[in-house]
Amino acid sequence: MPPADKTCASCGRRIEWRKKWERDWDDVLYCSDVCRRRKVSAVDRELETGIRTLLATRSATATICPSDVVRAMTADEDEWRSLMEPVRRAARRMVAAGEVEITQGGKVVDPSTAKGPIRIRRRRS
């Protein structure tokens, strides 16, 4: 029986166990070479802080859009668009840490497979 899946340290997506990683599974941190090179930057940490800050200013049941986070951080339209995927990665890492949930249509979804518009909310018990 394969061990439990892990979460990529960079993008927050699920890393599924592979037979070729059997001996090294405990050392696997990233889902791909791209994520291994990217790692988690200072900007990524700022985005996580931005998500926490924005959620703290809203009611306990409120959700936020990833674009709300990046628009609060920058007014530059080009930079705003380039930060959309990094803020989604930050949200996925925060889901893995148990801080937030990602929803679509009001329902919690798997962040590894969510496609299209998402919302971020505080984790509910």
From TrEMBL:
Gene3D superfamilies given in the database record: Winged helix-like DNA-binding domain superfamily/Winged helix DNA-binding domain
InterPro entries the record matches: DUF3253, UCP037205, WH-like_DNA-bd_sf, WH_DNA-bd_sf
Alphabetical list of SUPFAM superfamilies matching this protein: Winged helix' DNA-binding domain
Region Disordered, residue ranges: 106-125
Transmembrane segments: none
Pfam families linked to this entry: DUF2256 (PF10013), DUF3253 (PF11625)
Stored PANTHER family: DUF2256 DOMAIN-CONTAINING PROTEIN (PTHR37463:SF1), GSL3115 PROTEIN (PTHR37463)
Designated name of the protein: DUF2256 and DUF3253 domain-containing protein
Organism: Subtercola boreus
